[in-house]
Amino acid sequence: MFQAMIKKEFLLLIRDRQALIALFIMPAIFILIMSVALRDQFKQEQISFNIMVLDQAHSSNSKKLYKSLLENKSFHLTNESSQAALKIIIPKGYLQNPKTHTKLQVVVLDALKGDILEIFKAKFTKVLLKREIASIQDKLNLMLKTKIKNPSQELLLDADQLFTLSYQKSDDIPTSTQQSVPSWIVFGMFFVIIPMSTVFINERKQNTLARLNSMNTPLWLMIFSKVLPYIVVNQLQVVIMLGVGIFIVPLFDTPALLINGTVGAIALLSLALSVSAIGVASLLAVLASSAEQATTIGGILNILLGAIGGVMVPKFIMPEAMQKLSQISPMSWGLDGFLDIFLKAGDISMIFTNALMLFAFGLITLIISMIILQIRMNKGL
Fold first, then answer.
1. Are residues 270 and 361 in the same domain?
2. Residues 206 and 62 in one domain
3. Count of domains in the chain?
4. Which is the most buried residue in 163, 260, 351, 363, by most CB within 10 A?
5. Residues 68 and 127: beta-carbon distance below 8 Å
6. Which of the given ranges, 8-22, 50-64, 281-295, 357-371, has the highest pLDDT on average?
7. Cα–Cα distance between 314 and 300 in angstroms, integer?
8. What whole-number distance in Å separates Cα of residue 84 and Cα of residue 169?
9. Confidence of residue 378 (pLDDT cuts 50, 70, 90)
10. pTM to 2 decimals?
């Protein structure tokens, strides 16, 4: 009978196309979209700016400034205002009359953080200083009627000549792929709440559970026959999502997923996450009065747990108070465990506490759901 009950669960799941889309296709698409979208935000490398230049002067000085900006790797020049973060206006009379200092105009077209704007001002100031010095040099050449050595080289305005800059990779800051893959693995695994609770409620309304109970089928066996298929589904989710991060994401010029930890740690954490998600699904299934109610509540609950747990917004950029609050979400425990595996070469011992918390949470919710289900069945509900 147990094998027949498990077969029934697999058949119900396979026939539910919406559930399969929610469990497999949706997380895969989210991993791809978020990894590519956040690619530049997670880079610990040189910051660059998209700039539009409006030359109103049309002079040799304005053309030289444009050329300097074009040659600078920190600036990407564009003619489309929609693609530019800043617009530089070179007014008429720029550097023509030494008595009247005509200022350049910089217009911020896109929302830039204060620290990023300060970086732009420093980089742009360096370009302007070089142009000012070059202009003085040209005038001296005319006065002395001889070519003098380039003073801008003497002043060592180039950062490469003044100091050496390197980037130390932080163990706590992931790449966009290392953040997106575990986030949407966790989020996708918890989406078993919707198909599992829907099937559970339909069987309860159709008296399938009551008939099994009349055949003296133990309650734990009814629950376990539903748990096992979804554990298998969750593990398939993990394999597919890891595959997307390793093989598909790099095709879009985005860093591939690097797994520095052990396979055993991934397997243990995945199993613990699955038990936790299935526990929540079972509890919701016995509490909800209809499939529509379970679907609505399950979707909202998933989003709330994900938002608090660092799925929607990475925890390392959250305020300290929010980081502490995130610890109430089981998604946070799973996400932290995956990040330890991917970033810190975590093994089973490193993620054991996270896995234990997830197992405990899942088992407690399963036990509570069995107690509630037994009470409802005794009452004929």
1. yes
2. no
3. 2
4. 351
5. yes
6. 357-371
7. 20
8. 29
9. confident
10. 0.67
